[in-house]
Design goal:
Number of domains: 1
Largest sheet: none
Strand content: under 5%
Distance between the termini: 38 Å
CATH topology: Ferritin
Bound molecules: fe (ii) ion
Helix content: over 70%
Number of helices: 10
């Protein structure tokens, strides 16, 4: 895993200016209502992963050097930036963020049930796989907003977040590749099988949750749950084979954001 390149990428991203306050966004009422419901749930999802950065620093995963531990911290902070951007979008839509929601509670309950609460190398890797599953859904979701919501402000915001989430997924793929490569030949097959099964289950849960929770938005944007799920599969397949794929990240990409006022 190319730690210095990843660190340069995350550091460059962290220097991006804060987005300015958005002007009010006018949308047709049914779409506005569905979008507000949706952004409120995704805001909660973007807000709550601080623990994984602390664990990456504490559990001593041998494939995470100091630079990569710092990357995980910057990665989590980038999710916090997404959360703040979504708050801005909600305000421009005349709405507020939520403190909690059923879909988010179910997701956290599922994670605890799967035993992802343990502080250990295996626990950290499992948590990262769950986050990777959320990234898959996030990439497809934000691209959908960028393509189909008739508002330049939402399109610009969603394009930027979708690019970040795609890079996060590349980071997750590189991390998985690194610990599979570090395993013994005998252990690698079982580790890969376990990781793939766990990740597959997490993606299925994430897609199902979004398909049910976002059904009104999907209808408004004219996308079927099956088409959404298929796009998620395409995102995953684009990152295989894990063993050979080089990091696909651009170290520095120009920001398209307006400067803060
Ligand atoms: Fe995010
Ligand atoms: Fe992400």
């Amino acid at each position: 895993m190319d730690s210095s390149r990843w660190l340069a990428y995350f550091r460059a991203n962290a220097l991006r200016p804060v987005r300015g306050t958005l002007d009010p966004i006018a949308l047709e009422p049914a779409l506005r209502e569905a979008l507000v419901h949706s952004l409120q749930r995704f805001h909660l999802g973007e807000s709550g992963e601080g623990r994984v950065a602390r664990e990456a620093a504490e559990v001593g995963d041998p494939v995470l050097d100091d630079a990569l531990v710092r990357c995980v911290d910057l990665y989590v902070k980038e999710e916090g930036r997404h959360a703040r951007i979504l708050v801005g979008a909600l305000k421009a839509l005349g709405a507020r963020p939520l403190r909690r929601a059923l879909a988010e509670d179910l997701f956290r309950l599922g994670r605890r049930t799967l035993g992802v609460g343990r502080k250990s190398i295996a626990g950290l890797r499992a948590k990262m796989l769950v986050i990777a599953a959320a990234e898959v859904v996030g990439v497809v979701y934000y691209r959908l907003l960028a393509e189909r919501v008739p508002s330049p402000a939402i399109q610009s915001m969603a394009t930027e977040i979708a690019e970040d989430e795609a890079a996060h997924l590349d980071f997750q793929a590189a991390y998985t590749r690194a610990y599979l490569a570090a395993a013994t030949t005998a252990g690698r097959r079982w580790l890969a099988l376990g990781a793939a099964s766990f990740f597959g289950a997490a993606v299925a849960c994430a897609v199902l949750t979004v398909a049910v929770d976002q059904r009104t938005l999907f209808r408004e944007l004219g996308i079927s749950p099956v088409a959404f799920a298929w796009s998620c599969v395409t995102e995953i397949r684009a990152r295989f084979p894990l063993e050979d794929a080089p990091p696909t990240v651009e170290v520095i990409r120009p920001s398209t954001m307006p400067l803060a006022a």
